[in-house]
Structure formats: structure tokens, C-alpha cells
Amino acid sequence: MKNMLMAFYAAIIGLLILLIGFTIHGRSIRQVELNNALKSSMEQCMTSLLYEEGGPQSEEEWKSMFLQSLAVQINSASDLTVTFLEADMEKGLLSVEAKLTWNHPIGTKGSVSCVRTVLLEEYEEIESE
């Protein structure tokens, strides 16, 4: 009987350790996923603004293109909320706050957020005489 109780308590402790590990690992994976997705979506959005001939014509189209690119790159089962802090096509400025919300294995809600700003600069080549 004593061995059965010890095995039961060991199983409960093992289960708790696994749940804690899944919770911590899930948070770190989603933070990395959000950071990488924001970075590449913003780069793609700025590149299309600078180099593509038939690029976005309005700020709404530009924002929509960014949101589509970001949504494609988020693979986890989570809710994505995006807030545009500043978006100006003329100045080449895009500042975004993104937040991922999901349910942990134990049933609680978790969230990570990231704020990123990109400024497009054009350099003119100076000819030396």
C-alpha cells in the first residue's frame, strides 16, 4: 500500500513538472515566433514599398499587405491582435504592436507582445570629383 501511494504521488509530481515545462516552453516559442514574423513581415512590406512598381497605392492597402504577410507567418493556435501605432507611406515609417493570446495546457490564458518600428531610408550616391 505504501508503494502504491508513493507511485501515485510521484506520478502527480511528474505530471505537474510536465505541465510547467510545456507552459514555459510554449511561451518562449510563441515569443520567438512573433518576433520573427513581425521582423520579416515589416521587411517585406518596406521592400515592396521601395522596389515594386505595382506596389501598394494607399496606406490602407499597405497595412492590409502587412497584415496578410504577418497572418501567414503565425503558425501557432493563438489569437493575433495588431495595433498600428504609426504608419506613413510618404515617410517610410511603420510602427506596430502585435499580441498573441492562447490557452495553456492547464487552461489559463497566456499572452506575449512585441513592439517594432521600421524606418525606410533612401541613400543618395554622392559622386566624388
Please, could you describe this protein's structure?
With 129 residues, this protein is of the alpha+beta class. The protein has one domain (2-119). 50% of the residues lie in helices and 25% in strands. The chain is built from 2 helices and 3 strands; from the N terminus they run ααβββ. A 3-stranded antiparallel β-sheet has the order 1-2-3, covered by helices on one side. The longest helix is centred in the first third of the chain and has 50 residues, at 2-51.
Layout of SSEs?
Layout: H1 2-51, H2 59-73, E1 79-88, E2 93-103, E3 109-119
Antiparallel strand pairs: 1-2, 2-3
Helix pairs in contact: 1-2
Multimeric state of these chains? Answer: single chain
- Residue runs with pLDDT of under 50 for 5 or more positions: none
Write down the domain tally: 1
What order do the strands of the largest sheet run in, or round the barrel if closed? 1-2-3
Counted beta strands: 3
What best-fitting shape do the alpha-carbon axes yield? elongated
Total helical elements: 2
What is the end-to-end distance? 94 Å
Radius of gyration: 22 Å
- Return the average pLDDT rounded to an integer: 84
Q: Which percent range fits the helix content?
A: 40-55%
Q: Can you summarize the main beta sheet?
A: 3 strands, antiparallel
Order of helices and strands: HHEEE
Strand content: 15-25%
| Structural category | alpha+beta
